[in-house]
Specification:
Layout (H helix, E strand, L loop, with lengths): L6 E5 L4 H12 L3 E6 L4 H8 L3 E4 L11 E4 L8 H8 L4 E3 H10 L3 E6 L4 H14 L5 E8 L4 E4 L5 E5 L14 E4 L13 H13 L6 E5 L3 H8 L4 E6 L6 E9 L2 E8 L2 E8 L4 H17 L3 H10 L8 E6 L2 E6 L4 H12 L6 E5 L4 H15 L4 E4 L15 H11 L4 E3 L2 H11 L5 E5 L4 H19 L1
Parallel strand pairs: 1-2, 1-4, 2-3, 4-5, 6-9, 6-10, 7-9, 10-11, 11-12, 12-13, 17-21, 18-19, 18-21, 19-20
Antiparallel strand pairs: 7-8, 13-14, 14-15, 16-17
Helix pairs in contact: 5-8, 5-9, 6-7, 10-11, 11-12, 13-14
Length: 462
């Protein structure tokens, strides 16, 4: 199958990955339509591009399309999938569509792994942009540097985030692969961590010998995988044993400076204007890529200095009476721990963390680890699980996390309805506080509502 199909319908078009593909398809000249269960800003942006993006899945949305694409959250009994089958319209997954687009390019960069994909993708894309390579870009978040989650380039270069959640990514054959880290995650699909690692092993074993793989030196799973990889493997991290490593790190307010050494050659001082040691690791991956591509060091420094955090990645959404409210997509214990550490580097008087667990399967697998990660806060507010596409699992809820933390009794912890959070924060926050609002679900809406409400309270008092 090729991409000469003119009319393409996308089931689940409002998702961050599907919408990026939709933007690219429009720029390629296709007639694009799609549907999703809820409207959002990205769907509105697609409509401004001429996409017919409807709310709700319905058989009537399938008419004379040449191809139907579905996201990983769509079940095969979806009415639009069934209607497409009845009409003998070809049906492919989001990953298969991505492969078609990638196969039409000659210099493709894929970023995958458990954490840090979106930031590393946006950084890598900006690097190629600054280097004048005019890449096509697909990001798993909305980047201020690109004005959204996608950009259509006219060159043969492409940078894309690759979702590993359903195992379909093994069909992709990029020229460069960055794997940020690898640990237990997406237990709705993978049986265990060994299954996840084995899937990545299959992915690497299918690559051309010319494919260059970049991986974090300190990650044990990646060390084992790259040791058996037949092509070129480049490591990055904080150890002098890594091919590319960072040292002499200085943490400032929303800024980190570090020296970088590439294959024993000092590259000088780099600055990223975002917090978190984990983001230094992401930047080191991008420097390793840049060195492999032959990009000049001053260009790398400028790209990383100019990088702005993707929406919902340590996103400062409001400052109220000396208190900061930050939204972050963190939804895995490791990500929560890293985000809390980044917030601590800003030296708040108090750190109040609001967390909405994402998926019942993840909550069931990690409730003890969530409790431990959240304990780095001064106070924790929990709200109920955002189900995503999952059915409720008996015994898997935010209450599991709450009970572990309440039993340990080390910090105050509260279990609130989502509708109660804004009012509680309005009474609670004081000058010098940082409020972290974490989760991959709809908690972001609550975060923005809280900012507007609390600002209005202070305006009335003024």
């Amino acid at each position: 199958m090729d991409l000469r199909k003119e009319k393409i319908h996308m089931v689940g078009i409002g998702g961050i990955g599907m919408s990026a593909l939709a933007f690219i398809l429009v720029e390629m000249g296709h007639i694009v339509s799609g549907s999703d269960v809820q409207d959002n800003d990205i769907m509105k942006a697609l409509r401004r591009k001429g996409v017919v993006a409807g709310v709700g899945h319905d058989r009537s949305n399938i008419k004379e399309q040449d191809l139907v694409v579905y996201s990983s959250s769509i079940r095969m009994d979806n009415p639009e999938i069934l209607a497409a089958r009845e009409r003998n319209i070809p049906i492919i997954s989001r990953t298969e569509l991505l492969k078609m687009i990638m196969d039409g390019k000659k210099k493709t960069v894929a970023i995958t792994g458990t954490h840090g994909k979106t930031t590393t993708t946006a950084m890598s894309a900006l690097l190629l942009e600054e280097a004048g390579l005019d890449p096509t870009v697909l990001i798993g978040g909305e980047s201020p540097n690109f004005g959204g989650n996608a950009k259509f380039g006219k060159s043969d270069a492409l940078v894309t985030e690759v979702d590993e959640s359903d195992g379909r990514f093994v069909i992709l054959k990029p020229d460069y692969i960055i794997i940020s880290n690898l640990e237990k995650e997406h237990m709705e699909y993978y049986r265990d961590e060994a299954h996840l690692v084995d899937t990545f092993r299959r992915f690497l074993s299918a690559q051309s010998a010319k494919c260059v793989v970049f991986s974090r030196f300190e990650d044990a799973n990646l060390k084992a995988l790259t040791r058996s990889y037949g092509g070129k493997a480049v490591s990055f991290g904080f150890s002098p044993e890594a091919d590319v490593y960072g040292e002499n790190i200085k943490i400032g307010v929303f800024k980190i400076e570090f020296d970088c050494v590439c294959r024993k050659k000092p590259l000088g001082r780099f600055t990223i204007n975002i917090p978190g040691i984990h983001n230094v690791s992401n930047a080191l991956a991008v420097i390793a890529l840049g060195a492999e591509l032959g990009i000049d060091v001053p260009v790398m420094k400028e790209a990383l200095f100019r990088y702005k955090n993707v929406k919902r990645r340590f996103d400062l959404i409001g400052e109220i009476n000396g208190a900061k409210i930050v939204e972050d997509y963190a939804h895995h214990p490791t990500e929560i721990k890293a985000t809390i550490s980044a917030a601590r580097s800003l030296n708040p008087k108090r750190l109040i963390t609001v967390f909405q667990p994402h998926r019942y399967t993840r909550t069931k697998s990690f409730y003890k680890e969530f409790s431990a990660a959240l304990a780095g806060s001064d106070e924790v507010i929990l709200t109920e699980v955002y189900a995503a596409s999952e059915e409720r699992i008996e015994g898997a809820s935010a209450k599991n996390i709450y009970e572990v933390m309440a039993k340990e009794d080390s910090i105050p912890v509260r279990l609130l309805e989502k509708s109660e959070i804004t009012g509680y924060l309005a009474k609670k926050i004081k000058e010098g506080d940082i409020v972290l609002i974490l989760g991959a679900g709809d908690i972001g809406k609550t975060a923005h509502e809280a900012v507007l409400y609390i600002k209005s309270l202070y305006a009335r008092k003024a």
